[in-house]
Amino acid sequence: MRFRAEVVVRLRPGIADPEGATIERALGALGFDDVHDVRAGRTFVFEVEAQDEASARARAEALADRLLANPVMEDSEVRMAPLPAGQQGTGGLSEDRTLSGHQVPAAQEPGR
């Protein structure tokens, strides 16, 4: 069975986040004065072949710990979902091009 893994990597609390700080400084000029404490991060999406969700999650967490996140400075969060047969090989994108409920432009699709 295949599962879609979504790994979100963020800097740990207390670690300076210059990208988040830059975004936060720009928010006022865009009319978002009510948004504060911006933290930037990265999201990785991939498929895992496994017998069950627990095994798929363990593989995704191992990959996140060994490759995607720097454990000294970053935390990672893993989200898993089984993939219907028609979505396998698409990076988890559904036919309406959404991932985690967000529209994904073609230029940003995984693998492009």
- Which value, in Å, is the CA radius of gyration? 16 Å
User: What do we call the CATH topology?
Assistant: Mth169, Chain: A
User: What fraction of the residues are assigned to beta strands by DSSP?
Assistant: 25-35%
What count of domains describes the coordinates?
A: 1
According to DSSP, the number of beta strands is 5
CATH class: Alpha Beta
Count of alpha and pi helical runs:
2
Give the mean pLDDT. Answer: 85
Give the biggest beta sheet.
3 strands, antiparallel
Biggest sheet: strand arrangement: 2-1-3
Features:
112 residues, alpha+beta, Mth169, Chain: A, two-stranded antiparallel ribbon, disordered C terminus
How does this model look, in words?
- The protein has 2 helices and 5 strands.
- Mean pLDDT is 85; it is low at 102-112.
- The protein is of the alpha+beta class and 112 residues long.
- Strand 4 (98-99) and strand 5 form a beta hairpin.
- The strands form 2 sheets. Strands 2-1-3 form a 3-stranded antiparallel beta sheet, covered by helices on one side. Strands 4-5 form a two-stranded antiparallel sheet.
- 23% of the residues lie in helices and 29% in strands.
- The chain is elongated.
- The chain has one domain (2-104): Phosphoribosylformylglycinamidine synthase subunit PurS (Mth169, Chain: A).
